[in-house]
Amino acid sequence: MKKRRFFSTMLAVICTLSLVLSGCSGSKKTDVSGAGPKDSSGAGTTSASGNGSSEIDHTSPLTLEVYDVAANYQGVQSGWFGKVVKDKFNLELNIIAPQASGDGEALYQTRSASGKLGDIILLDNSPLQDCIKAGLISDISNDVKNSKNLNQYFDQYKTFNSGLEGNSEGKIFGLPCQITNTSPTVYSENTLYISPLLPWDYYSEIGAPEMKNLDDLIGVLEKMQKAYPKNAKGDANYAISLWRDWDKGGTQVTMENAAQLTKMYGYEVNGAVMVGNTGDMKEVTDNDGAYYKMLHFLFQANQKGLIDPDSGTQNWDNASTKMKNKQVLLFWYSWQTGFWNTPDRAQERNAYIYAPVKDMNFFQDADKYFGDGRAIALGSHMEGNNRARAIEFLDWLVSPEGAEFLHDGIPGWSYTKGDDGKYTLTENGLYGLMENRPVPEEWGGGGFDDGNSKINQWPLGSVSINPNTKEKYHNNYWSSYLEANKTTMSKEWSEKYGEANQVAYLMKTGQLKPVPSVNIILPSDTTDVALIRSQCATLICDASWRMVFAKSEEEFKSMWDGMKTQLDGFEWAQLVEFDKAKFQKVIDARSAVVK
C-alpha cells in the first residue's frame, strides 16, 4: 500500500472520531480550530532551517524547562549529552519529571494552573489534548514547515494532529514520538518487544527442553535456578525479578509487570480492558483473560521460589542493577538484552536469546510510523528568540546527527565510521551503557549511562533508516553488528529452530501477525472517570501484588474474587464501558489501515 493511501485513509478515520475531552486547568483557553495561542511564524522557525533572514542569537546561555512524563530523572541534564547540547546550542535542559517527583499528578496540576507547564513539554496523547484546549501548548505548524528536518515528517505530524478535537485542518501542536520513516504495516525488527528471553548457556546446559506452555517455562526456570544459584560474582540468582514503581502509569490500572506479559498471549492491556491481536476486547478482570493468566504464572513461579524476594519493595533501578549482573534469568523486554548481551558474550554462549513456548500467540504492533502515544510540544509562552532556539533543538533531535547521538552514543568513542560509510561499535559502544563506562573529559566526563539523554524518549524511532549509512539507527541492525553476531549462540539457535531470527521463526509457526500501527488521540477521563480509575488502580495493583505472593492456590483465587467484588463498589462497570468505547476507536482505525 502506498504512503499516500495510508495518509488519506488515516485522515478519513481520524476525522470521524468524536472525542469527549476534559480540559486541564490553565490560565488560557484555546480554540484549536482558530488561531493558536502563538503565531508560529516567528524568527526562530525560519532561522532553524537556515532559510530566513533572521538569525538565531545563541550568545546568552538558555535553560529550557522540559516537562517530561517519560523521564526517570529530575534536574539539569549533565554528562556527555548535556555537553553536546551546551556546545552546539548554548542550552541547558532542566528536566521536570512527574515520575521522579513523588507526586506526579500534583506536579502536573500545579504547573498547569500556573499557565506554564514547561518550555518543551512531553505528554501522553490525552493530556496533550487537554493542555491544548487550556492554552498551554503552542501551534507550531509554520515552525515545522520551515524547519529542515521536522518538515520531512510533516504529513505524519499532520495526520496525528488532525485527530485533535476541532482540528480537522491538521494544525500541528504535538510532534508524536517514535515516528519512523518505514511503514505502519511492517514490523522491521528481528525480535519482539515482549517475549521470553533466557541465557542461552544456562538453557542449553539443562538440555534446552521444548516448552509447550507456561508450566513448562516454570519448569525450565526452576532447573536453571537450581543449576545456577549464583552469578560469577557470587550474588544470588533468581528466575524473575519484579519492580512496582512502574504501576499506575497514565491510565493503567494494573500491575505493570503482569500487564506487559499479557502480550505473550495475544493481548495488550489498556486501562480496564485488553485489546486482542485479532481485534477483540476483554475486561482485565476476565477470569479466562491474559491478565489473570500472567498473574497466576507469577504466583506459580513464587510458589517454586523463583521470584526475587526483593520484588515487592524494590524499584526499577534496583532490579535493573541485578539484570546488569546476570542475576535475573528471565527477561521479557527486548531492550533488556542491552544490559548484558555483547558479541563476545554471545560467542561464549553467555547471552540472552528468545526461547520458544509453543502455545504463545504474540501481540506486536507494526513499526510506529505515526508515533507511539506520546508527543512533544512547545509551551504557549515561548516567544521570539527563545522560541526559535527551542524549535532549533527539536529540529536537531530528528536530524541524522541528533538521532545518532540519541540512539548510538558518542562518535569515535561508541562507534567508528568505515571507508564504506558504515558504522561499527567499539568496545565502549558495546559495554558503555551496561558498565556505565567513564567518558573522556572532552565529552564531559562522568559515566556514559549517567550522561545519556534523560529525556528518555525518542522523537524518531530507532528502526528508521539513517540517510548517512542507509542502515537503521538501531545499532543491532548495522551490517557490522550482524556480521559480528554470527556467533556460537546465534548459529546454535538457528540450527535448532531453523530460522535466522525470532521474528522469522514466529512468522513461520504462525505465532506472530503484526498489528497495524495507528496513533490516534483518545478521550481523556472525565472528573468522575478519573476518580473511579484512581480508586480501581490502587485496588487492582495492591491485590495483584498480594496474589503473586499468596500462600496457596485457594488464597490466590480468594484474593481475585475479593478484588472483583470490591471493584463493583467503585463503579468498575462505568470505567470498563468508558475504556471499551475509547479503544474501539483504535480497533476501527487498525481495520481501516489494512483495507
Explain this structure:
The protein is of the alpha+beta class. The protein folds into two domains: 3-20 and 35-184 and 369-451, D-Maltodextrin-Binding Protein, domain 2; 194-268 and 284-366 and 476-509, D-Maltodextrin-Binding Protein, domain 2 (3-Layer(aba) Sandwich), CATH 3.40.190. It is 40% helix and 10% strand. The protein is built from 23 helices and 16 strands. It has helices spanning 3-16, 43-49, 79-89, 104-113, 125-133, 141-145, 154-161, 200-205, 214-227, 256-261, 290-303, 316-324, 343-347, 384-397, 400-408, 427-435, 448-451, 479-484, 488-497, 502-509, 527-548, 553-568, 572-593, and strands at 62-68, 75-76, 91-96, 120-124, 174-176, 194-199, 267-270, 273-276, 281-283, 331-333, 352-354, 374-378, 415-417, 423-425, 465-466, 471-472. The protein has a six-stranded mixed sheet. Helix 2 runs parallel beside helix 14 (384-397). The longest helix is centred in the C-terminal third of the chain and has 22 residues, at 527-548. It is globular and about 70 Å long.
Helix content: 40-55%
Spatial arrangement of strands, main beta sheet: 2-3-1-4-12-5
In angstroms, what separates the terminal alpha carbons? Answer: 10 Å
Count of extended strands: 16
- The structural class is alpha+beta
What is the CATH architecture descriptor of the largest domain? 3-Layer(aba) Sandwich
Please write the CATH class name of the largest domain.
Answer: Alpha Beta
CATH homology group of the largest domain: Periplasmic binding protein-like II
Major sheet, described briefly? Answer: 6 strands, mixed
Please state the CA-atom Rg, rounded to the nearest Å: 24 Å
CATH fold category name of the largest domain: D-Maltodextrin-Binding Protein, domain 2
Helical run tally: 23
Approximately how much beta-strand content do the residues carry?
Answer: 5-15%
Oligomeric state of the chains in view: single chain
Identify the overall geometry: globular
Mean pLDDT: 91
Number of discrete domains: 2
Q: Catalogue the unreliable spans.
A: 15-53
Region (Disordered): 31-57
Keywords: Signal
Biased composition (Low complexity): 40-54
InterPro entries: Bact_solute-bd_prot1
